[in-house]
């Protein structure tokens, strides 16, 4: 929904040199600022101006690189002081972007650059999938959601930008429903900085250069503990070679995007460089409300990013990043997929959707709503969201004597969420009705992180790294759910009240609530790599994390009179107030045995334990009836066996892995059934045991001169090994007992996932006999990719009516560009066969109705890039 466009684009200028040294920034203490009633508490803000050492460039660019990874020296180095003659000789080694790198700033550079990116993890005893610079450019990828079509082990479910689930091998989160009291089990980093809320990473990213996925627990590589895996998003660093680029596109649904970037040395300095980039993304909607002719699912996004790269000495590197984004969308309008008139046991539904909608005066559901992407919304009210992100990070590196390195990343980020739901929200979407005049959760999240790490040299049999990580976060949330006259009639169908009661007493009945969770996370970790023989090595690490969370929830009902308050409580929930705390010390670790029979083949066996921290259950809970306010941590013991092969001088890479995850205390959803309203209040519980097992294949390389291909496939069998107290699905909601999901696939998991692509590039002079001077220097390229996902349950109740059917999507592109890389013109298509499919289906307990979110339709367009 968010970025699958066909538009006239200009491929981004992917400078090979900048991509080559995408630096990863280590944390330092930052300051926690106030927002929406939050008290100001200093978080060692002085550290933002203290230059804590950090080893630069390539090794530091990725989350999870340990001592053994740092084989290459920093490419930013320039002598601090030299004679004029020596300084002239040193210019070929200029800071940040070397002369050799600058020569590679042609279209040919994308091939060796992409090879470097995929080869970077060939010695690592874990399964990794990389979306390279060339992949990003060829497939018009500018954000993480778009990249998932090339990442078969990764799934993202998005209800709206706040409600996001990011999973690797089925693990990470059971639902897209926001969980402010928990962190996601799959962690995401941008330039080495941890992103606490998934919604903050779904928008476009300036200067995007690479996305890599490390699968399985990565606790001992730093950052936040996790049990699903790690997603590293890296961006271009500033260059000392002055460059300007502009990218513009236009296409289907009035796609009109512009991207700008400027980079170069500050003045004539060889010590300080800058970059400034920004984007404007605009796209009309494609879901039409037949009542008002309003189109939904449009978006209008803005973003800007500034960077400073300084290299005052050969040993010290500093990279400062500041960014801001503003996302506005009229989103989250769904189509009716199913309604129930009888439960599975044959009992009739009391107050079906059709009966309730008729009583409330709902608009009829349009014919061909899925084919023509139509919805029946109310005549008044609208749906929309807005989110803003602000952030600053400081990366410092220092090369100690004897080649030891000290590294530090400090960051402070905010994520502000402003929904503007005018006819649905807190109780879900009811097609054809305006049941609520407001259903909004305003969130003012902010967090600070810092990580300090020391690493030994790599040219020795025993290598060592260790670090300390700290995170502070608070997530204040302000809730307002207001009923309408229609909503009162719909939810109280069958009650013996006259219409004036609905008007006078219930219309405007409002739930006001507030919650806030504060998290402190401190961890220490260490890794060792020991080379037993030239072919055999052992590596692993340990980690100990201490997590403390505190917070609470309080709510009240506001209505015009006592009867209205009583009736509103039955719909919106009775007022409640509670506070809770969670504190836990958790060890984790990993151990790998690595064998390299020949230089181009690596075999490994890895055991790893990861933890998704437990936390506070933030919801309108009735604690007096035994609902728990906290959940236990989710523990994953993973076993993985893999083989990594390189053939034909590393032009063909084939990697395979088999894995088995034993997950204990899997965090999922249960519920408390309210028979008076025929509804369920969902809350978090722990399923005793989940298993995620399967295998993966990643292959990519040069098939023929100019022809490159890639195939990635995964089979993931992730199921409940023991879960006997789930909430009943909608089709058996009249059965007042717990429900067993033992043996079922866990939510959001598809067993089979596949992505494959081909790209062909050829000089035009080979295609024509008599090409002029202009065409003799032009390259022609064409490519296509296909992605497939098998069926999955999109809701934790696992109703058969929330089972999303399998789907496959075909994309393509064609274009020309000069060998110099001065400009690029392409035309492309997404979802070229116009496949209609759902990305999620959600039930609503009242009336037993199901509604689904449709994926993007076919979109076509073109793009143009020009570089100065």
Topology:
Elements: H1 16-20, H2 57-60, H3 84-90, H4 99-103, H5 110-119, E1 128-131, H6 133-138, H7 144-147, E2 154-160, E3 163-168, E4 186-190, E5 193-194, E6 208-215, E7 229-235, E8 243-251, E9 255-265, E10 272-283, E11 287-289, E12 294-296, E13 298-310, E14 316-330, E15 335-339, H8 353-360, E16 374-375, E17 385-399, E18 405-419, E19 436-455, E20 462-474, E21 477-483, H9 485-491, H10 499-506, E22 510-531, E23 536-558, H11 562-572, E24 577-598, E25 601-612, E26 615-616, E27 630-631, E28 634-647, E29 652-674, E30 679-704, E31 707-722, E32 752-763, H12 773-776, E33 778-789, E34 792-793, E35 803-804, E36 807-818, E37 823-830, E38 838-844, E39 849-854, E40 859-867
Parallel strand pairs: 4-7, 11-16
Antiparallel strand pairs: 1-6, 2-3, 4-5, 6-7, 8-9, 8-40, 9-10, 10-13, 11-12, 13-14, 14-17, 15-39, 17-18, 18-19, 19-20, 19-21, 20-22, 21-22, 22-23, 23-24, 24-25, 25-28, 26-27, 28-29, 29-30, 30-31, 31-32, 32-33, 33-36, 34-35, 36-37, 37-40, 38-39
Describe the structure.
Helices cover 9% and strands 48% of the residues. The protein is mainly beta and 868 residues long. The chain has a 23-stranded antiparallel beta sheet that branches. A 5-stranded mixed beta sheet has the order 1-6-7-4-5. Helix 8 runs antiparallel to helix 9 (485-491), helix 9 (485-491) crosses helix 10 (499-506) and helix 10 (499-506) crosses helix 11 (562-572). The longest helix has 11 residues, at 562-572. It is globular and about 80 Å long. It starts with 15 loop residues before the first helix and ends with a strand. The model is unreliable at 1-62 and 65-111 (pLDDT under 50).
């Amino acid at each position: 929904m968010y970025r699958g466009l066909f538009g006239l684009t200009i491929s981004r200028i992917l400078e090979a040199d900048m991509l080559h040294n995408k630096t990863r920034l280590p944390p330092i203490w930052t300051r926690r600022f106030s927002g929406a009633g939050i008290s100001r508490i200093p978080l060692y803000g002085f550290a933002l101006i203290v230059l804590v050492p950090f080893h630069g460039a390539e090794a530091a660019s990725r989350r999870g690189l340990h001592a053994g990874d740092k084989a290459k020296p920093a490419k930013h180095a320039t002598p601090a002081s030299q004679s004029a003659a020596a300084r002239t000789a040193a210019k070929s080694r200029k800071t940040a972007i070397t002369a050799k790198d600058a020569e590679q700033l042609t279209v040919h550079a994308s091939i060796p650059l992409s090879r470097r990116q995929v080869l970077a993890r060939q010695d690592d005893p874990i399964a990794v999938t990389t979306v390279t610079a060339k992949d990003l450019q060829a497939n018009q990828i500018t954000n993480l959601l778009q990249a998932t079509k090339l990442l078969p082990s990764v799934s993202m479910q998005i209800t709206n930008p706040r409600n996001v689930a990011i999973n690797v091998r089925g693990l990470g989160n059971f639902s897209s429903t926001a969980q402010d009291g928990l962190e996601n089990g799959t962690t995401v980093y941008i330039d080495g900085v941890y992103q606490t809320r998934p919604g903050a990473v779904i928008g476009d990213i300036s200067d995007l250069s690479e996305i890599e996925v490390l699968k399985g627990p990565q606790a001992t590589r730093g950052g936040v503990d996790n049990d699903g895996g790690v997603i590293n998003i890296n961006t271009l660093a500033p260059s000392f070679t002055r460059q300007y680029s502009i990218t513009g596109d236009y296409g289907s649904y009035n796609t009109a995007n512009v991207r700008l970037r400027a980079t170069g040395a500050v003045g004539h300095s060889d010590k300080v460089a800058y970059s400034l980039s920004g984007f404007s993304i605009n796209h009309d909607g494609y879901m039409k409300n037949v009542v008002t002719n309003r189109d939904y699912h449009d978006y209008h996004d803005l973003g800007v990013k500034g960077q400073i790269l300084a290299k005052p000495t050969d040993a010290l590197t500093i990279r400062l990043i500041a960014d801001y984004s503003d996302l506005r969308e009229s989103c989250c309008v769904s189509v009716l997929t199913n309604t129930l008139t009888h439960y599975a046991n044959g009992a009739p539904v009391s107050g079906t959707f059709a009966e309730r909608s008729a009583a409330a005066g709902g608009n009829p559901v349009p014919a061909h709503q899925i084919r023509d992407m139509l919805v029946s919304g109310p005549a008044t009210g609208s749906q929309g969201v807005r989110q803003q992100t602000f952030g600053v990070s400081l990366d410092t590196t220092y090369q100690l004597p004897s080649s030891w390195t000290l590294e530090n990343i400090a960051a402070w980020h905010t994520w502000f969420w402003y929904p503007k739901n005018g006819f649905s929200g807190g109780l879900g979407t009811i097609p054809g009705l305006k049941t609520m005049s407001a259903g909004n959760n305003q969130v003012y999240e902010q967090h600070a992180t810092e990580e300090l790490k020391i690493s030994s040299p790599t040219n020795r049999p025993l290598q060592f790294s260790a670090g300390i990580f700290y995170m502070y976060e608070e997530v204040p949330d302000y809730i307002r759910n207001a009923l309408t006259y229609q909503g009162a009639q719909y939810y109280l169908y069958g009650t013996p009240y006259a219409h004036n009661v609905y008007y006078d007493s219930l219309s405007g009945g409002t739930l006001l609530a507030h919650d806030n969770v504060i998290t402190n996370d401190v961890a220490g970790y260490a890794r060792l790599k020991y080379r037993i023989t030239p072919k055999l090595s052992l590596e692993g690490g340990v980690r100990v994390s201490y997590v403390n969370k505190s917070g609470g929830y309080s709510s009240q009902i506001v209505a015009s009179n006592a009867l209205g308050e009583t009736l509103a409580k039955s719909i919106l929930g009775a007022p409640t107030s509670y506070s809770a705390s969670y504190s836990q010390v958790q060890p984790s670790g990993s151990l790998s045995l690595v064998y390299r029979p020949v230089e181009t083949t690596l075999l490994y066996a890895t055991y790893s334990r990861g933890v998704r921290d437990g936390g506070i259950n933030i919801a309108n809970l009735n604690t007096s009836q035994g609902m728990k306010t906290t959940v236990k941590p989710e523990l994953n013991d993973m076993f993985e066996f893999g083989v990594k092969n390189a053939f034909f001088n590393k032009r063909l890479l084939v990697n395979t892995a088999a894995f088995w995850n034993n997950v204990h205390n899997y965090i999922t959803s249960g519920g408390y059934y309210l028979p008076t309203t025929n509804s369920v209040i969902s809350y978090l519980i722990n399923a005793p045991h989940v298993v995620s097992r399967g295998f993966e294949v990643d292959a990519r390389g040069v098939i023929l001169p100019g022809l490159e291909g890639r195939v990635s496939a995964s089979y993931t069998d992730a199921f409940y090994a023991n879960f006997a107290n789930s909430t009943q699905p909608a089709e058996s909601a009249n059965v007042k007992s717990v429900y067993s999901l033992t043996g079922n696939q866990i939510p959001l998991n598809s067993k089979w996932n596949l992505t494959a692509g081909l790209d062909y590039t050829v000089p035009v002079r080979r295609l024509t006999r008599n090409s002029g001077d202009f065409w003799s220097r032009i390259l022609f390229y064409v490519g296509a990719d296909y992605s497939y996902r098998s069926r999955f349950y999109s809701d934790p109740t696992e109703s058969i009516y929330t089972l999303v059917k399998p789907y496959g999507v075909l994309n393509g592109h064609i274009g020309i560009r000069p060998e110099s890389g001065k400009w690029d013109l392409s035309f492309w298509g997404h979802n070229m066969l116009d496949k209609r499919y759902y990305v999620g289906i959600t039930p609503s307990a009242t009336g037993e109705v199901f509604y689904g979110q449709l994926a993007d339709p076919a979109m076509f367009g073109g793009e143009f890039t020009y570089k100065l």
